[in-house]
Amino acid sequence: MKAAKIYGAKDIRVEETSVPSLEAGHVLIKVDYAGICGSDMHEYMAGTFPIRTQPVLGHEFSGTVVEIGEGVTEMQPGDKVAVEPLIACGHCANCRRGMANLCTNSSGYGYSLSGGFAEYAVVREQNAFKLPEGMDVKLGALVEPTAVAVHAVRQSTLRLGDTAAIFGAGPIGLLLLQAVKAAGASEIIVVEVSDERREKALELGATHVIHPVEADAVQQIKELTGGGVDVAFDAAGVQATFLSGVSAVRKGGEFKVVSLWEQPVTFSPNSFVKTEAKITGSYAYVNLFPEVIRLLARGIIDGNKVITSLIPLEDIVGKGFEALASDRKQCKILVDMQLS
Fold it and tell me: Which of UniProt's keywords are assigned here (predicted)?
């Protein structure tokens, strides 16, 4: 089969490789769609993560079950599925506390195990979630990033009627916007430099959008909300959004960091000490795939509005990673395994 393998920064190659062996309790999936994630971009731009122990990328993917291993009881060939990439150990202290996303002994598809930027993948039965009849399979590739957004909102202090700001309107930012809207935020302010992404944010329910180069985002947010939002989310991961996000929340509010960072930030702790604002992080998700599948299947979160391109596997570098690096109009790019 063909698969996209990463060997270092700016070094991804589509190569022939063997199909992973089907084991007991596992299913063989013909991959239909796989999404390029922000964390994939981090590895492409800055080099591979220490957790990577094999080269086949791709942890946001959906497909069709073509063969089942011994002991599989809930899956049948022909089932359309979304794959949850995280495999928690189930035994460490964090797993026992119900925080499988923070498992200290985890593994995962696309990192330590062969991922979804390949024609076929073998996954554990419990990591494959059936898609309901009539749900577009390409939306299955958005279940994983949508779960990241939904988890962040659930972990935040946001309540019905609260105000929210989202810094960055890439895939996670736009999914956060929809999750915040579904949670009942009364005002949703999106801060984004791209004209196209700001327009998309308005289309998806933002009440206000701000270009942070042309306007003072913090000042505008405070004017719009009478002193700052209840919760701000960082979905960009750069110095400017961190500083603005911390300053944009009301006294006692929350700044929730969802993005991954290539560089450390410098800031004054006085910015939240004097306001008793909270800075919190959100990482991955815990037991959310069934709920997120329903949100996407029923259009409560519109995944199609986030997808900007479908590309063949052979063009994953030029039309995928390089396009995302250079073209701010792009948002979620999916590799479509049916294209050639």
Answer: Metal-binding, Oxidoreductase, Zinc
Question: How many CB atoms lie under 10 A from the CB of residue 141?
Answer: 28
- What is the number of structural domains in the chain? 2
Query: What is the CATH number for 88?
Result: 3.90.180.10
266 and 251 together in one domain: yes
Give the DSSP per-residue string, 28-71. EEEEEEEEPPHHHHHHHHH---TT--S-B---EEEEEEEEE-TT
User: Is-above-0.70 flag for pTM?
Assistant: yes
Structure tokens, 337: 């395994």
Whether residue 153 is found in the same domain as residue 227:
yes
Residue 30 belongs to a domain: yes
Contact 145, 175 (CB under 8 A): yes
Distance (Å, whole) CA 279 – CA 252? 10
Residues 63-121: tens digit of each pLDDT: 999 999 999 999 999 999 999 999 999 999 999 999 999 999 999 999 999 999 999 99
Domain hosting residue 131, numbered range = 2-142+306-336
Does 184 reside within a domain?
yes
Separation between Cα atoms, residue 212 and residue 173, nearest integer Å: 15
Residues 80 and 182 in one domain: no
Residues 98 and 6 in one domain: yes
